Amino acid sequence: MADQGIPDASLDGYVRILAAAAATGRRPTRDELDSRRAVGERAAETGHGLRALVGAHLDATRSHWPATAVSPDSVLAAVAQAVDAFAEGYERAQRLAVRQEEAARREFIDDLLYGRSDLGLLAQRAEHFGLRLSFEHAVAVAQGTVAYDEGDAVLREVERALIGRFGDRSILLTTKDGRLVCVAPGDQDEVLAFFAKQAFAATDGCQVAIGRPQPGAGGVVQSYEEALNALNLAARLDLDAPVLRSADLLVYPVLTRDRQAMADLVRSVLGPMRDARGGAQPLLDTLTAYFDAGCVGAEAARRLSLSVRALTYRLERIHHLTGADPSDPVHRYTLQTAVIGARLLDWPSVAL
């Protein structure tokens, strides 16, 4: 073994290059340089750092420096070329290893979030990336105005913040379909809450959805899909909260599980509003604002940029057309459910 525990194989052919340069003053041949690159590639697999390997070359240079060199400058030039070729091969192998690791990580993430791999094998692969899929996990997804990828500075910024705060807590941070994705143990909600805060700051105002904790490898997929569904609901219902929790939105999938029944409700309850001057949309917007404001007329009027009197007139018009009074608690539930259905089904833009 060479100095510092460096394998002798990393110096294969190097001393011969020194001797040839000392004897004739010639530079290393192309074949010799290619050989040094190949040795550098193999040396990258030993686990030794490039600095230590270069140091071993310098030690070998001192130990085998020819006493009768034709030209010391020629020997030094040969040393520089040989070491440079070795380092080139080492770095090439490192880049290849990084690309292979990134490809394996990307493949694992795709399989993890889409559930396309054998669950037992997936759990084994997960341990390499710091996840133990036998436990519960929850997934948070951040969606901004632009798409993000693995090399994006935003991802690195959020990653640094998470590691600085929590260290290694079996957290997987990645991107998927242009969104930031964070997978964390299900009993560590503070991790996902912090991720949401950091992602919001790093992206200048993205929206983050957090799925419920779910057990097993399949649970990651389920939590991820819940987060995506929450973002989809937010877009369809104009929910602008910076953080959405799927557990708080479970009523919406329940309401839309029977699409035909919901469409019938929208048509029967809100359909008469089509006869209003200007169509149904202004009155639907009025009901949406009224319910979003907690049925407080003054707040709803402010959101619609109307006077309270104008809002009251619209509500009375809705009562006249539909037979349902928005101020009546019994009627209010039916109207609000129909309004939610209309927003989810894109009525009245889409005929039901």
TrEMBL record:
<feature type="domain" description="CdaR GGDEF-like">
    <location>
        <begin position="115"/>
        <end position="232"/>
    </location>
</feature>
<protein>
    <submittedName>
        <fullName>PucR family transcriptional regulator</fullName>
    </submittedName>
</protein>
<dbReference type="InterPro" id="IPR051448">
    <property type="entry name" value="CdaR-like_regulators"/>
</dbReference>
<dbReference type="Pfam" id="PF13556">
    <property type="entry name" value="HTH_30"/>
</dbReference>
<dbReference type="InterPro" id="IPR041522">
    <property type="entry name" value="CdaR_GGDEF"/>
</dbReference>
<comment type="similarity">
    <text>Belongs to the CdaR family.</text>
</comment>
<dbReference type="InterPro" id="IPR025736">
    <property type="entry name" value="PucR_C-HTH_dom"/>
</dbReference>
<feature type="domain" description="PucR C-terminal helix-turn-helix">
    <location>
        <begin position="283"/>
        <end position="339"/>
    </location>
</feature>
<dbReference type="Pfam" id="PF17853">
    <property type="entry name" value="GGDEF_2"/>
</dbReference>
<dbReference type="InterPro" id="IPR042070">
    <property type="entry name" value="PucR_C-HTH_sf"/>
</dbReference>
